[in-house]
Amino acid sequence: MNSNRESDMSNHKISEINVTLWGKNKVSFIPNLDVNIIVGINGSGKTTLLLEIEKNILTLFENKAKYIYIPSIDNLVVKDGRKKLNALSQALDSYIYYNKEGDSLMYYRMSMLDAPSNERLKIQHRIDNFCEVINDLYKETGKHVEIERDKFNIHNDGSLLTTGELSSGEKQMLLLLLRVFLLNEEETVVLIDEPENSLDISWQYKLVDMLVKLNPNAQFFITTHSPSIFGNGWGDKIIYMEDVTSKI
């Protein structure tokens, strides 16, 4: 990435991509400041591009960057081998209850206790909006979520489910949306690798809309193989790897 355009951009958004992949290919383009959907054939370097952006982003923003990298569900790793939960369930639980690397949903909710009244109203409004987004998805399978005191409850036909009892797609979508929600609508670079894995086609169509709704101030870089990700009016945000890649 090139920092000579930094004065022309928002504090935490990238105005130019200019990176080298594998020492032989150069990728250069001017990204959109809201949504960038990166598509290309297998081996074209989509994931590697995200990793290069992540590697260079702190230098670009002089160590003041705010960003998150959300790997493909296939590349999540188990954080605690003593637990029976798989990597996806462990990641989800950490962002709901206790996250050593940053905020969690329950920590965010507890922040209301010490906040002034206007801030408490804002936090509650955001939490209600988040639950509304999730419940709009989960209603297809008869589930809904509620935050009750210090519990994140998942209701299903009168009984309570654990996060581990959700389907892979339900967990994957909840984790994606939760991580973006926890950015608190701040300007952030969000790197997401192949989010369509495990997601129903109808959810793929809705994904970008929901991400932007939860954080309209973020700049998204999303790699995908699925046309459904950009099929709901985001076709003008596509970056084709073959169009922006050249040999060195």
How would you describe this protein?
Strands 4-8-9-3-10 form a five-stranded parallel beta sheet, with helices on both faces. A three-stranded antiparallel beta sheet has the order 1-2-11. It is 34% helix and 21% strand. It is an alpha/beta fold and 248 residues long. The radius of gyration is 19 Å and the shape is globular. The model is unreliable at 2-9 (pLDDT under 50).
Index terms:
7 helices; 21% strand; three-stranded antiparallel β-sheet; five-stranded parallel β-sheet; alpha/beta; 11 strands; 248 residues
Q: What does the secondary structure layout of this molecule look like, with pairings?
A:
Blueprint: E1 17-21, E2 25-29, E3 35-39, H1 46-60, E4 67-70, H2 87-96, H3 105-110, H4 117-138, E5 143-148, E6 151-156, E7 159-161, H5 168-181, E8 189-193, H6 201-214, E9 219-224, E10 238-240, H7 241-244, E11 245-247
Parallel strand pairs: 3-9, 3-10, 4-8, 8-9
Antiparallel strand pairs: 1-2, 2-11, 5-6, 6-7
Helix pairs in contact: 2-5, 4-5, 5-6
